[in-house]
Amino acid sequence: xTTATVVSKDGTTIAYEKIGSGPAVVLVDGAFCYRDMxxxxxxxxxxxxxxxxxxxxxxxxxxxxxxxxxxxxxxxxDLQAVAAEAGEPVDLVAFSSGCPVVLAAVRQGLxxxxxxxxxxxxxxxxxxxPAPEDYQQHIRxxxxxxxxxxxxxxxxxxxxxxxxxxxxxxxxFPGWSKLKxxxxxxxxxxxxxxxxxxxxxxxxxxxDYVSAPTTVYAGTKSPAWMRNGNSALAxxxxxxxxxxxxxxxxxxxxxxxxxxxxxFLQ
Length: 266
Known about the structure:
The protein has ten helices and eight strands. It is of the alpha/beta class. The longest helix is centred in the N-terminal third of the chain and has 15 residues. It is globular.
């Protein structure tokens, strides 16, 4: 795949690649992830035998630029710009906190054929404690103070609910430097997440605007709160289906996800 660029509405350059042939599919990454870190590239490669797949670096990640001050609307416009290059209507596949980005773009009228959502991080019941009330503000404060590593650890423990001991070992893991570099975009994702981690049911009618066929996926090895949240999401989107992926976690493997994805997108 060769890197290309598109200019978003606010003048920011967004880097993307395309691979394959067939109907257009745009992949949207979650927290920390971009073309060279996360699930998009392996998923794109395995989808490319049937689809023209577009992967892009969300703003302030990888080779994409950024324009301050940040506004979530600009990320919607980034996705609109990539979709325009692909030729609407497109299929949209989102991972984790990329899911609310996709849903926001659909709400604003992006022409889509089908929508696939993998594990939107939603807490809708008491299967885990909600995030602290000042969770998003605390991340913003840490980033503003230049404490990117502390922001990553706080996100992983208070947001993702990984054990504190495991989180303290993160600096010795491969990829720690990439996590710290991309940490400022946690504040961007937080703007899209809104009340997703508050532990309350999805408000009635929130996603009634979604008319495209939609499938929501979750791994059987993901925690109960994640599975419950995504089951509730499927119920909240008109006509959506909920699909279990056996043996998968939040770090979904392309070899397990793509067959199910192809079945839905065909």
